[in-house]
Amino acid sequence: MENVTATEFKVPTREDVAPINQEIFDNLNKALGFVPNLYATIAYSENGLKRFLDYQNAKTSLSNKEKEAVNLVVSQVNECVYCQSAHTVLGKMNGFNDAQLLDIRKGKSDNPKLDALVKLAADITLNRGKANNETVEYFFAQGYTKENLVDIILQISDKTAMNYLHNLTKVPVDFPLAETL
In what residue span(s) does the Carboxymuconolactone decarboxylase-like domain sit (predicted)? Predict the structure, then answer.
């Protein structure tokens, strides 16, 4: 196997990827108007992009707003600039304002239920799954269930995979950075 450094990672084009990924690129272009660089990078794997998108788009007990809060705090903990940028934009699209997004990146929220979610997501990420008992109890005390706990862990795994991929490959960020954040 060849030795490749992160600086050698180029974002593959439609012509560079397998036919199954070309079809996914076409669908992403129709839905989003572009293929995000990190998704394109996953397409180095013939089966990886479809597998990842199926996982990412699976049903969950978390709302889109809750998913974005988890995505943003996990990306902050994992120091992934690409995903911080993407989930700042997506967070705004899901109803968060700049102050709320900044708080989430700091691992807190003025909404007690969201605060419990964000604190647990950060704790799980920081401690590789070994969350503090008080943080877990706070999560349950805010009305979350065991189903929600499983879904938050799955959401963290989704985002951690993307964070690690970007932190290693350093492909260009193709989401606008929030200048005020």
Answer: 51-104
pLDDT digits (tens, 9 = 90+) for 53-75: 999 999 999 999 999 999 999 99
**Residue 96 belongs to some domain of the structure:** yes
Q: Which of 115, 103, 104, 105 is nearest to 141 (CA)?
A: 115
Q: How many domains does the chain have?
A: 2
**Structure pTM?**
0.91
Q: Is 117 among the domain residues?
A: yes
Q: Residue 122 falls within a domain, yes or no?
A: yes
DSSP letter for each residue of the chain: -----GGG-----GGGS-HHHHHHHHHHHHHHSS--HHHHHHTTSTTHHHHHHHHHTS--SS-HHHHHHHHHHHHHHTT-HHHHHHHHHHHHHTT--HHHHHHHHTT--SSHHHHHHHHHHHHHHHTTT---HHHHHHHHHTT--HHHHHHHHHHHHHHHHHHHHHHHH-PPP-S---TT-
Q: Do 124 and 103 lie in a common domain?
A: yes
- Structure tokens given for 165: 């991929």
pLDDT digits (tens, 9 = 90+) for 151-165: 999 999 999 999 999
